[in-house]
Amino acid sequence: MFVDDFLIRAALAGLGVVFAAAPLGCFVVWRRMAYFGDATAHASILGVALALAFDTSIFGGVLMMALTMALTVSTLSGRGYTMDTLLGVMAHSALAFGLVAVSFLQGVRIDLMAYLFGDILAVNLSDLIVIWSGAALILALLYWRWSPLLTATLNPELAQAAGLDPKREQLALTIALAIVVAVAIKVVGVLLIAAMLLIPAAAARPLAKTPEQMVLAAAGLGAFAVIGGLNTSLQLDTPTGPSIVCVATILFVISGVARQIIRGRN
Amino acid sequence: MPQMPWLNRAATASEAVRNDTDTPQRLVTLRNVTLKHNSTPALRNVDFHIDRGEIITVVGPNGSGKSTLLRAVVGALPPSTGFVQRNPKLRIGYVPQKLHIDPTLPLTVRRFLSLPHKVSDEQAQAALEQVNVTGLAQRQMVGLSGGQFQRVLLARALLSEPDLLILDEATQGLDQPGSAAFYRLVETLRRDLGCAILMVSHELHVVMAASDRVICLNGHICCEGAPAQVATAPEYRALFGSGTQGALALYRHDHDHSHEHSTSCPDDCEQSHEDNILRVKT
User: Is the ipTM of this complex over 0.85?
Assistant: First the structure.
């Protein structure tokens, strides 16, 4: 079967992640939640450690930890500390606690690098199933809440007057973010998940006139970055996850420069 | 009991049913509402109602609880004591004070009009025509001028076919001719659509001439009543009258007579009137 080829599996895994990350990444950009994605991702190292310690599935541990982090941050915001301070404290302390916790696990030999930077070439069939189920779940959730979420993103009071509850929409987004972190950890790793959310969406901005166009463009650019990154890593023998992020960043620079040139002409 | 939102909602429903038979025209009623922000009351003992088709202007200095009142009407803030009744079928069109759209969010006028509820191209076109900004549909929201932006916000509010249109200092950032034109438009729309209008202004001396009632708020309702006639004196008309083609008028606060709240009206309320009202001698 074609999924026997590790490259095909890697490409499918990467595509699953970027398709889920495209709409979510747009919300991260629009709502200025970049640090939020970071904090959630960093916390997942602690999830990895706990999952190994209690011998449960890594995916489950990461999902639990990412959800806990995301919910804690949304609950604590606006209570004495500003959001960026709170996120800075929690993101890095969760990462530090995670790394310390992992060091206690002497019985298990863990390739920590695989969780920090991902190991997309080692994706197996069950990983693929987890990634695509997660992606389908996220896309379904966002498709369902799309209009209310967009309205609440634009202006909470506008949403309120239309009978919507901005806090509930925020919760849906938070949960989706935790899921994407949990499925993406294998592909790009903890340190680069936020990059996969942010960079394709940011690169898509100059190409779009409506929110929906921006999501589609983000998905397209993300897919290009995955395929391009895989190729690059194969040709140049570079680490795959970082290569994908590098290609995405090059796309971001190109679209930004293109916009400046078009603006200059008008 | 009012702290329990579910009981509150139950009361709202049953009251509204009773209201439907008693006074079918009543859209929103606030009864003895006190609203606290961390233990300091932003609104005290407010009795207030909106009937179908009314134009009500709420004026008050900054921090007088105007926005809190609006949010209580919309249902965003549950009252600490007292209760809020809304007609169960009430549709609210909301024009916010200032809508900041993040430049990272691409949004055409056409797309904005379909938030959160999808509207057809014909409906969108008709709404833009109503507010006199045709041809903007494919423009980006962030590229609009202040006046165009407020009109598009108004068009979006109209698309929900509201019974109650809420304008929260909707002309902030517009110059005087601009805001006068905006309010003339609102007046025309009200005549055509028959919806009630609740608007808020922090400019104490400027209210819509067409207001049925003006409510002066400063933590509580200081006074309310019909706006005074536009001054007939030519110098005042030159200042506020003909310059705005009658869209804006002076609200005459007459504190010589005693009114219901005069004993409870604190000095700062009187003070704020004196500071901000140009007294009109007719």
Answer: no
